[in-house]
Design goal:
The complex is a heterodimer of chains A (196) and B (82). Chain A contains 9 helices and no strands. Chain A is mainly alpha-helical and 196 residues long. The chains are: A mainly alpha (196), B mainly alpha (82). The interface between A and B is large, with 51 and 44 residues.
Chain lengths: 196, 82
């Protein structure tokens, strides 16, 4: 049975069909919550809130987007509600990430060459740097980045989940990517200098 | 520098293979003569690879069971017996 059929059955009250949809998406939604909050407790809250809202509103789902995109949109709202009071970092404009750009910290210097990142940092440490950087930046950047590259959604699907234009979505994903690149570069540079 | 600024907006599309051929050649032409932009492309590409290589947090069984129970209760409230 394909996803559309499962949704149709779930909408008519078939719990078995809905359970199969839960199985497909629960790990993905939990991961999204964990990446954004950095802790299991908040990830659990986001997961539960998302699926309970999905039960409440399953009959309102019209199939204009895929079920997954609809579910991610609910999860994004759950994240926003949870993080409303948490101040997270705004990111600088795209041009400022260029070397010599205002606030890039690179002056007119050349960018640092990474070589093989795994020679400088173990995967576990790398994961920690990436997770911390994502958890610290404003959700408006980390959410689209995670949906795009961890969950493999298309830019259009991310835009639909977040109720944004494709152009705005692309810009936010790029800013998150540039911020992660910059942070990783700083860490690799520090590690390389320690070895000299 | 102004050339770099001009291309930075399209760089993610270029790396992800989603750029039209005309803009693609324009960027490639620029990359030939700009080491910083070459490094930018290379490290931005690696950034996503490193993210994808990272572990995914496994959903603990206890949380999964709690979720299933909560959903079942909500389902029964809405539709009657699950």
């Amino acid at each position: 049975m394909n996803e559309k059929e499962l949704v149709k059955k779930a909408q008519s009250g078939d719990f078995e069909a809905f359970s199969r949809l839960i199985e497909k998406y629960k790990n993905k939604i939990y991961n999204l919550g964990f990446k954004l909050s950095g802790n299991r407790h908040d990830a659990e809250d986001i997961l539960q809130e998302t699926f309970l809202k999905a039960v409440d509103n399953i009959d309102k789902f019209r199939g204009e987007s895929s079920f997954g995109t609809w579910l991610y949109a609910i999860a994004v709202n759950a994240v926003n509600a949870l993080h409303q009071s948490k101040k997270k970092a705004e990111l600088k404009p795209i041009e400022d990430f260029l070397p010599g750009g205002h606030g890039s910290g690179d002056g007119a210097k050349e960018l640092f060459e990474w070589g093989d990142p795994h020679e400088l940092l173990e995967q576990k440490e790398l994961n920690r740097v990436i997770d911390d950087t994502l958890a610290e930046m404003s959700d408006k950047y980390s959410v689209p980045f995670i949906l795009r590259y961890y969950e493999d959604l298309s830019v259009k699907e991310v835009a639909d989940s977040m109720n944004l234009s494709v152009a705005a979505t692309k810009s936010r994903i790029l800013r998150a990517r540039l911020a992660l690149r910059e942070r990783l570069s700083e860490v690799f540079k520090e590690k390389a200098n320690e070895r000299v | 520098m102004s050339e770099c600024k001009k291309h930075i907006q399209s760089i993610a599309d270029y790396i992800d293979g989603e750029l039209g051929p005309e803009l693609c050649s324009e960027i490639e032409e620029h990359l030939k003569g700009c080491k910083n932009c070459r490094l930018m492309v290379d490290t931005l590409r690696q950034t996503v690879i490193l993210c994808k290589d990272g572990e995914r947090e496994e959903l603990p069984e206890s949380i999964s069971s709690k979720l299933n129970e909560a959903i079942k209760r909500r389902w029964e409230k809405k539709f009657g017996k699950a």
